Amino acid sequence: MAVLDIICYPDERLKQESETVEEFDQALKDFVADLEETRLAGPGAVGIAAPQVGMAKRIAIVDVSKMKKPVENHGYLLMINPEITKWEGMGKGREGCLSVPDFTGNVIRAEKIHIRFQNTDGEWTEFDTHGFEARAIQHEMDHLDGMLFLDRLVSRRTDLFQRKVYKK
Amino acid sequence: MKKWSVLTLVGADQAGIVAGVTKALAAADCELGETSMMQMGGNFSMMLRVRHDDIDLASALKDICQQLNLHLHIDDDVDGKTEAEEPDVNITVYGADRSGIVAEVTGALADAGLNIVDLETAVGGSSDKPIYIMTIEGKACNGVDALNDAAKNISAGIELNIVPIQTLRA
User: Which of A53, A68, A72, A94 has the highest number of chain B CBs within 10 A, making it the mutation to test binding with B?
Assistant: First the structure.
């Protein structure tokens, strides 16, 4: 196990599309363990994606179960080859990224998503999620497509009445 | 020795103000930090934090200010802090326009521990029934509950929405 180096923008590897994982072997399990250790070393990081450590593979981790202010969650999520198959609603939230230190900005994301992904044995899982967990998943999946939250920044003036518009 | 200054420029709006001013600053080897620039009525206003080799900023901007008829004000930066505080609460306010809305709302929120990071206001609605709209991002130094309590004492007719910002770090 090892904490890997986080690569930061403008490293071009962050702008590349990652490849589908096809080998579900021990090397994959070892890499995932290192990736999680790296996430835990990043202060307060609720997610990490393989491209952030220079590995162009469709692997991401999200865990919003330990927030200071708790949010609904599905616990630790290791997502291999994740796909979002449904989106619903939109909401604005503030995001920061281990690969873009010292900056946070507002980003619009889908409120509710249906997600499916594989585990390290190649088995598929799927479920609906919403809110902060859905936001974190979308942030990480963007990394797999070579996108950063910087690509989705919106003006502070966008979406004046967030709660009125998005009240459930 | 590099130093930071804060520039304020205001003038009648026209195309090319940002381009002209920033070109003059770049030519004088100034680096820009945070900036805020917008139309305000028929004016254009700019505030810029600028890092420079202790040069005479007024002379560096003299020609462009004359050409575009801009008023310039220069302050020394109070310190070299490069980042604004990170907001943890978003507040939107609106109501039928009248004088004193901003004073009342920000007064109550300041007493409840709100440190404003960013505030913008606009007037909308029809000309015979204008509404005043304000968006605030700030730091709730005494917590968001204290702000919610303070909001209960705001006059009827002013709508306040206070939403905590939970920043995603990933």
Answer: A94
